[in-house]
Structures are given as structure tokens and as C-alpha cells.
Amino acid sequence: MTDASVTLNSAKLAADDLFRRKRLIALAVPALALAYLVYIAISFDVAGLTRRASLDNAAILASDTWSYKVHVTRDNRRGGTTYAIEGERKGTYEKGTRPTWINEESDDALIIDLGEGHVVQFLPDNAAVYDVPRFGRIETQLVDGSIRTNLTEPIPDWINLSDKRITITTEAGRMSMTRTRTEVLRYFAGWEMFWFTLDSPYHGRSFTEIAVGDRIDPTRGNLSGAVSDIWNNGMWRHKDVAWAMGETILMAFLGTFGAAIIALPLAFLAARNFAPLALVRGFTRRIFDFLRGVDALIWTVVLARAFGPGPLTGALAILVTDTGTFGKIFSESLENVDEKQIEGVSSTGAKPLQRYRFGVIPQVVPVLLAQILYFLESNTRSATIIGAITGGGIGLLLTQAIQTQKDWEEVAYYIVLVILMVMVMDWFSGWLRGRLIGRKD
After folding, report:
1. Is 415 exposed, middle or buried (0-12, 13-18, 19+ CB in 10 A)?
2. Which residues of 82-115 are buried (b: 16+ CB within 10 A; e: fewer)?
3. Ranges of the chain with pLDDT below 70
4. d(C-alpha 422, C-alpha 417), whole Å
5. Contact indicator for 114, 184 with CB cutoff of 8 Å
6. DSSP state of 155
């Protein structure tokens, strides 16, 4: 066999071996990915989560974000019926008044028209009847502390029944009966009483009536009274929300710029061209690693134990974390400065501080400001979560609204405000960056 044949065979074997390895890799990568997905499905119990998931509850939750409920509640112990929007005291109809879709025949009997053929009747002796189209008449009554109905097996999945409680949920509304009360909820689109509560004289008035109409409240002007009632709205708490938004922005502002002020002088100690001692550089860099290595949420919990809850604790948590991050970013920027500019300032007889001020700072200011403004925008979002832990800002109101699980339209309202706040901060930081640094078209 000639040398050429040996070379050709070696090349063929090498090519076959290369193709074999590529085929193995092509099969192994999808197999590993599939195995990993199977592991995730088992460890996170995806099958169990699928079985426990309730699309009906998800649909109700989603509808609650853009609609409100009117509660018709009868006290099964003391008697009497109340009508309230979202069950709130500020949304309770005055005695003798009620929504137009409720016909009150007597103190113990009334007819509630839920629309689309759904009708609920409150009857004497703690009895109620729900006429459901395409299903029939559901009769319920509280007898000796137990719920009695005319329902027979099988019970539809939209009816939750026990001897202590019955809940009927349809597309028109919801009815429930317990030992203490019988309640009907009817849904309406929108955020009711967003501007004025029922106890405000401006509720139900048009903008024209308030702006140019006759005086509605004899004790105050229309515009001043309307603004006061909106600002002090007891259901939507516009005054508290505005204060909370200010606290959130303040936490982000103080934390971000406080961290920048602290990190800048420390960054000189971590930069190789400004701190020749390796021990000093190493120690400063380890401090930065420690500060940014612990997440801001962990610092929030630690500082809350030391200083108590409040927006100041949130600002300190952001400050501590960003000091480590800014220290690393600033020191890397300092290491990349142009030495010729520093030498030019030194040739004028400038002292060390003057060399830093006129030879170093002008070079790094654009990078530093860009990073600071970016982190200001990012920390505005982070301050929402931090505020939920420290008890300050819009995050606290959002957490409270989620935990109560009562008025999800308030949750949607707070989320919309957070999104708008982030958008405004994004625009503001971009505008400020353009004014301070310059903007290239």
C-alpha cells in the first residue's frame, strides 16, 4: 500500500469519526433536553397542577379586573337587606334606595333581575329561589342551621353545595347562602365609583353639570368640591395612591443616587491605574462583590429588622446593592480612561485632586450618567417589590389588594399605575440623558 493510499484511508477514517461524533451530538442534545423536561414535569408535579387548575376561577378573576359587583345581602339572623357596590360602606345605598333592577315586594321578599333570564327571589323564612335558564328552578332554604335544596345528583360543577353553604355561579352573577346571610352578586363592566362614592353629592353628575352647572353642594363650589371628593375617595384612595407612588419614586431616587455618590470615590480604590497597592484593590473589590452578591430583597429583610419597616429601609436596600454594582462599573470605566488627557492636565501643574477633576471625571461622566439613569429606571420597578416587604410605596397597596382577594379591579388599577410610572421614568431618564450627555440622531 502506497503512502497516498494510507493518507487517503486515514482521512476517510477521520471523516467517518467526525460524522459519527456529530450524529451522536445531534441525538444526545435533544435527548438531554427531553430528559430535562421530563424531570421538570415530575419534580414540579405538572400533571397535578393541571388537575388542580380551575379555568372557571381564572375567568372570574380576570373579569374582576375590569368589572365591579353589586352586593345584595340579606342577614339571615337579624333580618334586613342591604345593597352595596363591592360590599363597601362607602358604596352602600341609603335606606329606602336600591338599584333599579331590584323589586322589593316586602321586608322579607324581593325579586332580583340579573339579566338574560336569570332571576333570584328572596322569600320569607330564609328561603331563596334562583331561576336559571336552560337548567330550571333552584330552591334553597336555611332550616335549623343547615342548607336544604331541591337539587338531586348529579350536581353541576357550577354549583358548590354542602349542608353549611351553597354557591351558584353563572354567567349572569353569583348567589350564595350560609348560616349568616344570603347574598347575590351582579357584575357590571367598568370601575364604579372611581371618581365619586355614593355619599358624594357629585355622584351620577355629568362633567358639564359640575363644571358650568348650578351649585350642587351649597357649602362649596362645584369644582373645588368635586376635586376634594375625588382626592378623598374612600374606595379608590387616590390620595393614598398618589402618596404611595411618590414614596416608590423616592425610594428609587435616594437608593440609586446615594449608591452612586458612595461608589464613585470607592471606585478609585478598585481601579488598577489609580490604586497601585494590590491589597487595597483586592479588599475594595471584595466589598463590592459582597454588596452586590446579596440580592436587594435579602438586604430589605435584613435592614427591616434593623431599622423597621418603611420607605427609608427600601431606599437603603437599593443603596447597598447598587453601591456594589456601581463600584464595579465605575472602576472598570476608570481603568479605561485615556492617560494622555490626564498627562495634559498634569503638565499644567495641577494637583492630584485637580487631575482627577479635570482629567478623569470628564472622560467617565457620560458612561457613569448613562448607567445611573438606567439603574434609576430599573430601580423604580424594583422599589415596587421592595415596598411590598418594607411596608411602603405602591407595592404595599398592591400586596394588600392581592391578599384580600376582594377587589381585583384595584389590583388592575395599581398594576396600570406601576406600568405608567415605569414608562414615565423611562422617558424622563432618556430625556435627562440627552440633556446631560447629548443625543446622537
Report:
1. middle
2. bbbbbbbebbbeeeeebeeebeeeeebebebbbe
3. 1-9, 11, 16, 53-58, 60, 106-108, 338-343, 345-358, 391, 405-407, 438-441
4. 9
5. yes
6. P
182 closest CA partner among 271, 75, 58, 61: 75
Beta strand 67-75 with 159-161 is: unpaired
CB 433 within 8 A of CB 369: yes
Measured N-to-C along each axis, helices 296-307 and 361-390 cross at an angle, to the nearest 10 degrees, of 60
Rounded to a whole number of angstroms, the CA Rg of the chain reads 34
Domain 238-436 in this protein, CATH class: mainly alpha
- pLDDT tens-digit map of 195-246: 988 888 888 888 888 888 888 888 888 888 889 989 998 888 899 999 999 9
Give the cell for residue 190. 367598568
| Cα gap 117→105, rounded to integer Å | 19
Distance in angstroms (rounded) separating the CA atoms of residues 341 and 239: 53
CB 256 within 8 A of CB 372: yes
Distance CA 280, CA 268 (A): 10
Provide the grid cell at 266: 470607592
Determine if the peptide bond prior to 362 is cis (ω within 30°). Answer: no
H or E element that contains 379: helix 361-390
| Count of CB atoms situated within 10 Å of the CB of 158 | 14
Tell me whether residue 376 is exposed, middle or buried, using C-beta atoms within 10 angstroms of its C-beta: 0 to 12, 13 to 18, 19 or more. buried
Enumerate the CATH 1.10.3720.10 domain ranges in the chain, comma separated.
238-436
Cα end-to-end distance, the chain, whole Å: 70
Cα 234 from Cα 410, distance rounded (Å): 13
Q: What is the pLDDT of residues 276-334, one digit of tens each?
A: 788 888 888 899 889 888 888 888 888 888 888 888 888 898 999 999 999 988 888 88
